[in-house]
Amino acid sequence: MPYRRAPEWQISHWFNTPEPLTLARLQGRPVLALAFQMLCPGCVSHGWPQFLRVTAAFPELYAIGLHSVFEHHDVQGTPAALAVFLHEYGIDVPVGLDMPGGGAGPPLTMRAYDMKGTPTLLLIDAMGRLRRQYFGPVSDLHLGAAVAALIGEAAAGNDNPPADEFGDVGRR
Amino acid sequence: MPYRRAPEWQISHWFNTPEPLTLARLQGRPVLALAFQMLCPGCVSHGWPQFLRVTAAFPELYAIGLHSVFEHHDVQGTPAALAVFLHEYGIDVPVGLDMPGGGAGPPLTMRAYDMKGTPTLLLIDAMGRLRRQYFGPVSDLHLGAAVAALIGEAAAGNDNPPADEFGDVGRR
Amino acid sequence: MPYRRAPEWQISHWFNTPEPLTLARLQGRPVLALAFQMLCPGCVSHGWPQFLRVTAAFPELYAIGLHSVFEHHDVQGTPAALAVFLHEYGIDVPVGLDMPGGGAGPPLTMRAYDMKGTPTLLLIDAMGRLRRQYFGPVSDLHLGAAVAALIGEAAAGNDNPPADEFGDVGRR
Amino acid sequence: MPYRRAPEWQISHWFNTPEPLTLARLQGRPVLALAFQMLCPGCVSHGWPQFLRVTAAFPELYAIGLHSVFEHHDVQGTPAALAVFLHEYGIDVPVGLDMPGGGAGPPLTMRAYDMKGTPTLLLIDAMGRLRRQYFGPVSDLHLGAAVAALIGEAAAGNDNPPADEFGDVGRR
User: Which chain A positions have a beta carbon within 8 Å of D40's beta carbon?
Assistant: First the structure.
């Protein structure tokens, strides 16, 4: 099998959900997660609008935000700061605060996925495998294709997808 | 099989191709066709830009334009008018002039597909079956999904696709 | 006086007006005219939308379209073709068909203003003087400034405006 | 004179300027100021892009940002938070942190101008008079007109402008 299991995320604080959302609990449906920082311009201008567009178009997805603060922790990194951001932007999907790794570096989930920065999109299939990871812009055309393929597999009960014709990080 | 064979198109004049492009000749790769009128505002502002975006993103597609003139035939309907439009807009994909049906009504290909107007997108799979027909706006997300599914089937040699989970005319 | 009198336009056919609109008749209010061709992509995608935006924002303006066909006369140049274009695009401001100059060259109004192509915007003050001529893109910021200045002069009865601080063809 | 003197702003901390910028010091050129909050979506998506567009188009303006925090003071209201925002968004015009008024209410400059929220644009003429105050969206067309009028007055040494034909808060 060419895909690795998506690392379980490590979250210090959840918003917009009554209980923690582990990957294990979400299995059975594809997951689209957006790792962002509240003061990252590309996250606010492109990442979040596209993420909300995709999750509205494909309600079969679990939609999860990950606040992966790797710089300016004092300003962006607190639950209070994240709560204000979510309130001001009217975001009501579940969002987890990525667990600080100690010191000034990236948080633990960001490290486990070896993310290069924000925004990063993670696309995880219904079996819990990491199928796509996009850092920076990806077109709606290619993202829609990647998402729909996982929804189709889940609907068909197909747990042995073809090797990915789009390469490691997804066609953009 | 839930899909019907795409009707062969009927063309009076081809542009940007050394020889006529019948559906029979194109079999083996999915086809995306845009039926338009040169003076239809939605075709110019949305239809053509999206069509060119999709065909650039997915080079596995055959990209075909169909000039399906169902009104103002005297102004829009001549090969000379279409030639000027293609030149001014820098369109270099093959475009066929949909065969006039006689009188003021819709042309023959438009009738065969029972198109409601322009722009209409036709998505035909590598086996020559009509899989999607969109009249008016469709999101890049859903169009990318539909196109990529047919490319995936063709690559896998899968000629027995699942019943369409998106319904008759495609999710938008 | 640093401004020249705007040349009277020469029109073979008017649309959307019960009688011909000479510049002499329009004097007393500023005039914004858009010279275009129906198959010029920049005219359709940028020129007309901006022109309609400006004339809606500043109802003090006379808004006039000039169909200045300098190429592909057989396809674009007839009153019938222009009528279809205006109908399909829902344009209801007065539009004049610039008088053909004979042969394949530019029409007479286009020549009188020495236009370089389409779209071209002409801004004429309430005294009938040509104050701005923009070929190609101009920002809403600078166009709004230029239009409002002429409206202000007309309201103040000021017929001796300062030399233009923006230069010959207008700041963009 | 129908215009009131713009109240001097009250700033607790300046960024991107070697010394405090009082209105008295800026007199002689028109001033465009943007009052914003770093976590206000409309400020980030529309207010700042338009402000930067206007100040690039009209270099005769003094461009000033005012961080007028009237809610979520603990997250948005510190100099450290503002410094991160300016760094992440690449903003290099002078920005002042509006002086907190004590408690949870609006800061002192916001009160002095009776601002209704953010984003708010203030347009102050070269004589130090408040000429326009826009809360929320204003079109580039009308903003360009208002700005250029003040630049024209300043260039002409005209200190007795006509009563404003656009009304109290500016045409949008």
Answer: 88
Q: What is the pLDDT of residues C34-83, one digit of tens each?
A: 999 999 999 999 999 999 999 999 999 999 999 999 999 999 999 999 99
Q: Can you tell me the distance from the alpha carbon of D14 to that of D92, in angstroms, rounded to the nearest whole number? A: 12
D89/A81 Cβ within 8 A: no
Q: Which residues, in sequence order, are CB contacts of D115 under 8 Å at separation 6+?
A: D35, D68, D106, D133, D135
Tracing tokens 């006086």 back to the chain, one arrives at C1
State the architecture of B11-17+27-156+167-171 in CATH terms. 3-Layer(aba) Sandwich (3.40)
Min distance D148 CA to chain A CA atoms (Å): 30
Contacts of A58 in chain B (CB under 8 A): 141
Q: Which residues in chain A have Cβ-Cβ distances shorter than 8 Å to D89? A: 41
Q: What is the ipTM of this complex?
A: 0.91
Distance from CA of B50 to the nearest CA of A (A): 10
- Contact predicate B103/B92, CB 8 Å: no
The closest CB to that of C141, out of D54, D155, D162, belongs to D54
For the whole prediction, is pTM greater than 0.90? yes
**Mean pLDDT confidence for B48-63:** 97
Render pLDDT for B63-113 as a digit per residue (tens, 0 to 9): 999 999 999 999 999 999 999 999 999 999 999 999 999 888 899 999 999
Beta D11-15 vs C130-135: how paired, if at all?
Answer: unpaired
